[in-house]
Design a protein that fits this description.
single chain, 283 residues, alpha/beta, 5-stranded mixed β-sheet, 3-stranded parallel β-sheet, 11 helices, 8 strands, 40% helix, binds adenosine monophosphate, binds manganese (II) ion
Length: 283
């Protein structure tokens, strides 16, 4: 067992979380986290604040982000850890990925309006701490707050997923580009929550093979987005593909997230933790 309390996946107001980087750092430290990474979606604007707050609480820090990728027609999330946040191609790539979000949000709003829900774009924007990062989560909070749905889970079931009004097909970064941005900036690419993708066995195999071919080196095994059975399954996948393993809560908000920062089982001992391979990138 690897008994380091590392939490290498969570979100702040810089993407779709509800806490600031400083509030997250305080919460992580209070929960016993020793090594932390803030991994906002397609955005690294919170990295300096997160690193400073981590150090103020005596935690070690790794830079982080969670990049939206389109692979085999499905959205896949690739975590970048330990990269140089000043790297120009990483910064441009992320800016380009964020660039598609506003038009997508406006189209989502048009579709919701056709379904009888008015003002969703403006409503979602009010919840977005970063206007370049309007996400489905912000729409979900607006629809809960205005009483359309009881909770965000219901919003996703009824409105924001494939085949439902409010779902807009979107083309994110390619797998190859995302892995290259991360690795050329000195970081490690990690497949986030692999159990969440609706892939056939062949598609999943292709994802892992192509990810490795592009230079990807890690997979998230213990995450708030997996069940205990999925920890076992993806520990096996990590061994099979020779990938390092990561651990992260995917915490977004005290009111919405069921897994709090640092409150996860440790990584199974026979796996190589990503932080062992990133030792020289830890701040
Ligand atoms: P986006 O990047 O705009 O497509 O939004 C994706 C985000 O929506 C994810 O990172 C989650 O935070 C959130 N999300 C996706 N599916 C669900 C769900 N079923 N319930 C609650 N939140 C979800
Ligand atoms: Mn999210
Ligand atoms: Mn994700
Ligand atoms: Mn996430």
């Amino acid at each position: 067992m690897s008994i380091l309390n590392a939490d290498l996946h969570c979100h702040s107001v810089v993407s779709d979380g509800t806490l600031t980087p400083e509030e997250l750092a305080a919460r992580a430290a209070a929960n016993g986290v020793e090594l932390w990474a803030l991994t906002d979606h397609d955005e690294i604007g919170g990295q300096q604040r997160a690193a400073a707050a981590a150090h103020a609480h005596g935690m070690k820090y790794l830079t982080g982000t969670e990049i939206s990728v389109t692979f085999a027609g499905e959205t896949v999330h690739i975590l970048g850890l330990g990269f140089d946040p000043e790297d120009p191609s990483m910064r441009e790539g992320l800016a380009h990925t964020r660039g598609g979000r506003d038009a997508r949000a406006q189209e989502m709003s048009r579709q919701l309006e056709a379904a009888g829900i008015k003002g969703a774009y403006e409503g979602a924007l009010q919840y977005a701490g970063n206007p370049e990062l309007v996400s489905r989560t912000h729409f979900a909070r607006f629809l809960v707050e205005t009483g359309v749905c009881a909770d965000t889970g219901e919003v996703f079931r009824k409105y924001l997923t494939e085949g439902k009004p409010g779902y807009v097909e979107h083309r994110w970064a390619s797998l190859k580009a995302a892995v290259q941005w991360i690795t050329s900036a000195g970081g490690m690419a990690v497949i986030a929550h692999p159990a969440r993708y609706r892939f056939t066995a062949n598609e999943e195999y292709a994802l892992f093979m192509e990810f490795k071919a592009h230079g990807g080196r890690g997979v998230e095994v213990v995450t708030g987005s997996h069940t205990p059975a999925e920890y076992v399954r993806y520990a096996e996948t990590a061994r099979e593909f020779g990938l390092a393993a990561s651990r992260g809560s995917d915490f977004h908000s005290p009111g919405e997230s069921h897994t709090d920062l640092g409150q996860l089982p440790f990584l199974p001992g026979e796996l190589t933790p990503v932080w062992e391979m990133l030792a020289d990138r830890i701040q």
